[in-house]
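The following block was generated as part of the benchmark described in Methods. Ligand: 1-deoxynojirimycin.
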Amino acid sequence: MTKQPEWLNTAVFYEIYPQSFMDSNGDGIGDFNGIISKLDYIKELGCTAIWMNPCFDSPFGDAGYDVSDYKKVAPRYGTNADLKKLFKEAHKRNMHVLLDLVPGHTSVEHKWFKESMKAQKNEFTDRYIWTDSIWKEPSGYGSLRGISDRDGSCVVNFFSHQPALNYGFYKPSESWQQSFDDPGPQATLEAMKDVMRFWLNLGADGFRVDMAGSLVKNDEDGKGTIRLWKNVRAFLDKEFPSAAMVSEWGEPDKSLQGGFHMDFLLHFGPSHYNDLFRCREPYFSSRGKGDVKEFVKKYLENYEKSERKGLICIPSGNHDMDRLARSLNPQEMKIAFAFLLTMPGAPFIYYGDEIGMRYVEGLVSKEGGYGRTGARSPMQWDSSKNAGFSSAEKKKLYIPQDPAPDRPTVKQQMADKSSLWHEVNALISLRMQTPALQNLGEIDFIETGYPLVYKRTAVDGKACMVIINPSQKKCEVKMKEGQVLHITGKGAEYKNGCYKVEGGTAVIINLA
Ligand code: NOJ
């Protein structure tokens, strides 16, 4: 297992979608100076690190996941110097910042792609994956066709305007397919290392890596892509040993072999993540009709594969999925956070989830957001104009905000001791003081229904028991008495050898 930078062992992340966090210059869109002005807020909440979505030059057909210049930030957020200042200001506060690296594809406007489209052979001819004739489509992949002088179809990764960078095929089977060791794929990888080097030298603390598991093509069991990331790991070990690497892969057995420090458990694939928060009967609904068993089963499979290390991160949400508040009410969200903030792996809180920001319904898609747009609306700070996000005219806002008169705001929740904000704040602070609850503490599941009960154990053997009871029904957990460290929700008492836990309650108990 790759040794982690020390700070990652206790990190609690806050995900910032830069467009929507804080606008400092009144143009209706968030920016770096806005983020800098809110670093103290993030710290006060208790988060120690930030993951910021792509902030590089882009035509924004996919909110910046279509990069047109990897070494220059998009002017709408500020300058490279402003981003450097953001790193510096975060470091001053003992916080760390991960950038979002998008190594799989670029925008069609990237100069590499423009060169690659030319009929005449040049340095970038093999930077992307092209078939050798326009009449040949790459089977199993989408393609961009008929827009270049070059005779060929170009493989795309996500949207059809995101041409796939060429890292080769695991087992090339067509004349136009190259292997990872060929000069084209090798040059692409070197170019990507150069991008990483550039930002790490400027002060970034590492990367969240977009679609990290899909770089080498026709690589069903990931062997080629693992090999690629091992190569990157060797580079980082040599030049930037303290850079943190978190993958959007969703298969920790593979990503960790590739030298990533942590991986996400995500809303796609076989994770059963959605069973918890985002399905018709989520486990965390007080209706108590959900099912947590399949999630735990899958979690444990991954946990064993990652040597029982806390390397699987469970986010509260992200820019690709519905807001928690779309399926859970504030009370239910408190219990969900009691779970999220007592699990192994680094917690990732999506901006605004700490106040239960709602999914804004019925919006027109913005920058390739489509159904994701409603979860990307501007942060709600207070009750002033545009909820304190921007001084721009309302109609100029990047995405319209939640129109509800009772929309949650940071200010109102910070003033109310019983709010979701305070619960999240208290849970993070408990985690920070309790090694058993932190990222690398072990987990053993004791019960996997209503309630969900698990034991967390620190390296020094000190342990905590966590009882999560989202349903309305009271439950009993037979165990020896410990010291109650925290109760989220209604209450619990110890009687006759049992913890009797009220419905809608989570309890964290220190086992002496
Ligand atoms: C995953 C990102 O999280 C998502 O927002 C993006 O659209 C795709 N990757 C493509 O880069």
